[in-house]
Amino acid sequence: MISTTNEAFSPNEGNTRGILLFVYVRSTHVPKCTLISRASVPTGFMGLAGNKGGVGIRFRFYETDICFVNSHFASGDGQTNRRNDDY
């Protein structure tokens, strides 16, 4: 999905219900954004809930591949193993 305005566009947006990621690029660079893709992995309750997990968006900008990631994992000192498993 590509959303456009006069000043910028979002080459894609990621969503796992609770985790969002938006990337905006100036509209003058739109023709140079290619190979746009996204992925999301929910790791919440039983691997189904979207309150934990990660979202990624990647695209090629001119000749440079760019990837943005947003993640939210279990909190707390005693949750290290769970965070590592979800990663």
TrEMBL record:
InterPro entries per record: Endo/exonu/phosph_ase_sf, IP5, IPPc
Coiled coil (UniProt feature): none
Gene Ontology terms, MF aspect: inositol-polyphosphate 5-phosphatase activity; phosphatidylinositol-3,4,5-trisphosphate 5-phosphatase activity; phosphatidylinositol-4,5-bisphosphate 5-phosphatase activity
GO biological process: phosphatidylinositol dephosphorylation
SUPFAM superfamilies: DNase I-like
Domain Inositol polyphosphate-related phosphatase as annotated: residue spans: 14-87
One protein family per Pfam: Exo_endo_phos2
PANTHER family, sorted: INOSITOL 5-PHOSPHATASE
Name the record gives this protein: Inositol polyphosphate-related phosphatase domain-containing protein
Organism annotation: Adineta steineri
